[in-house]
Design goal:
NADP_OxRdtase_dom; globular; Oxidoreductase; alpha/beta; two-stranded antiparallel sheet; NAD(P)_OxRdtase_dom_sf; oxidoreductase activity
Amino acid sequence: MRYRLLGRTGLRVSELFLGAMTFGEGDGVGVPRKECARILDTYAEAGGNVVDTAVNYGDGQSETIVGELLKGRRDRFVLSTKYTCTRDGEDPNAAGNHRKNLTQSLETSLRRLGTDYIDLYWVHIWDPNTPVEETMRALDDAVRSGKVLYIGVSDAPAWLVSRANTLAELRGWTEFAGLQVPYSLLNRDVERELLPMAEALGLSVAAWSPLQGGILSGKYTRPGGVGEGEPARLDAGALGEREHAVARAVGSVADELGVSPAQVALAWTMTRSSAVHPIVGARRAEQLADNLGAAGLTLPAELMTRLEEPTGFRLGFPAEFIDGTSKWVYGAAGQRVVPRRRPH
């Protein structure tokens, strides 16, 4: 496992993050504590050091289990959790990105995780009802208190994230170091605005659902994909031709390279941008071990093209318009200008 720097900070984080959303059996389909321990140990033995959870995962069980499993080795991990989602559906102030919910959610997470600080604290989703100034100032106060070391934002529009970081930079507050978004061969929406913004601002990108619910691992498209008694999140019969076409391309490349489809799909996200860290979750340690094989797997350009062709993805306006008019805008001499490299 290799390590990269988190955003524009000096914190070293592993190529792949471990997602703990499935930890705990509260919803009837989660992972038992004993298997959670095997999963975490498998991840740690491979060199992984980022564990990602949230205050609402498993109705709190995820944070509790993660805290118990990290006892005696907590400082060796970059502990990541999130707030925004409700802790009490009957209380309007038990959700959102305002100062009150941040403060109470943070104290709840610290207690469950059995720690006195969070390495990476995420805003879970944009709350349109809370001014971003309030959120950024409250997060900065949490950092200054020592209870949070770094901050990130998940599931928010590019304009909001860039505004928040510009505001923080102007006022001397803590800036977001990371962005968390869905990203896979079947969901490339972030390439339009969010990923270019993250690269330009130097944000690390944590990619959730990089296997698109298991579709890209071959779970629903290859014989024997779903094991007996194993919970299935999707109805295989509901998958369309696009899903099958992309899954076939992933499977074909995997067979050619002698690796698993999951490894190819995960490697694609990291090859596409050096800012991306896939969040890998698993229900079994063996499944996680296979996913971790994506570390160090770089796909050549011709295979990247084969994987991307069946996605039918287009950047759309304004990117396509700007690229398409560049010769008219800049003239013949402009075509010989070496383009500026995006910062990473």
